[in-house]
C-alpha cells in the first residue's frame, strides 16, 4: 500500500514561522507557551520532512536560509487561502461570526475604540473585535504577515504587502511650554534651533521617531534625547514638567494646547511637514462583509475627515 502524504504539520509551520519572525527559538517558545526544546525539535522534524536546512544559528539568534524564504511564502499563502475559504463559507451561510483584529499606533486608541463600540459592534454583535496598540512598524508587519486585518499608523513604513485605504496629513510639530524661548521667536524654527535644548522622543520602532530620524539625516544633525519612551502621555508630561521639548502631531496634543498647558511650533522641514496618518489593510485577499464594514467605519472617523 502506498503511503499518503497528509501535508506539512500546521504546528511545525507555526513554530518555524514564529522563530523566523522573532529571530530566536526561545522567543518563539515564549510566544507559543512551550519549552524551547519543543520548538527546536519540531523545526528539526520539518527540516527532515522537507530535506533542507531552514535555519542557521548566529550566536543566540537564528537566520533563515534561502529555502526558508520559500517556506515562509508557503505559510503566508496557506493561511491566506484558509482565511479566504472561511470568509466565503461564512458569507455563503449568511453568518456574521468570526474575529477581526485591529492594530494601531499610539494616539488613536480612544477614537478607534469609540468608532468600533458605537458604529460597528451594534451592526455585527457576534464579531469578536480585538484592538491592540503597537508601533507603526508593527502595524505594517502584522498586517503584511496576516496577524491583523486592518491598522492605523502614523508615518508607517512602506510595504508592498499592504494597501493604504485612506490618509490624513498630520505634520510633526515641536511641542513646548507656553513661555519657552523657541515659542517666542518670530523667525522660522528649524531642527538645528532645537539642538541646545533637552528633548524627549519616542522609541525607535515608532513611526514618529523614524520620521524624525529622516528629518535629522536631511539636516545632517542628531537629536540626543534625555528621555526615550513608547508613550505619548509620558512625552507630554515631561514637557509639562518643563524637562524637555518633544515632537508630535497637533492632533495628539490638542487637549493640552486647548488647556493652554502646551503649545505647538511649526518646524521648517519638508520631511516633518509630509507626515501622514494612514489606514492600511492587506494588499490581497478576500474581505468579508464585516471587514468591509469595519474598513468603512474607520475610514469615516473624524481622524480622516
Question: What secondary-structure arrangement, pairings included, does this model have?
Answer:
Layout: H1 10-22, H2 25-32, H3 36-50, E1 55-58, E2 61-64, H4 66-93, E3 98-104, H5 109-120, E4 127-133, H6 136-144, E5 150-154, E6 162-169, E7 172-176, H7 181-184, H8 191-194, E8 200-202, H9 207-219, E9 227-229, H10 232-240, E10 246-249, H11 254-258, E11 263-266, H12 270-273, E12 276-282, H13 289-299
Parallel strand pairs: 3-4, 3-5, 8-9
Antiparallel strand pairs: 1-2, 5-12, 6-12, 7-10, 7-11
Helix pairs in contact: 1-2, 1-3, 2-3, 5-13
InterPro entries: HTH-type_LysR_regulators (IPR050950), LysR_HTH_N (IPR000847), LysR_subst-bd (IPR005119), WH-like_DNA-bd_sf (IPR036388), WH_DNA-bd_sf (IPR036390)
Keywords: DNA-binding, Transcription, Transcription regulation
Family: Belongs to the LysR transcriptional regulatory family.
What is the helix tally? 13
Mean pLDDT, as a whole number? 88
Q: List the secondary-structure elements in sequence, H or E.
A: HHHEEHEHEHEEEHHEHEHEHEHEH
Percent of residues in helices:
40-55%
Euclidean distance between termini CA atoms = 66 Å
Strand content: 15-25%
Report the principal-axis shape: globular
Structural class: alpha/beta
Largest sheet: 5 strands, mixed
Number of strands: 12
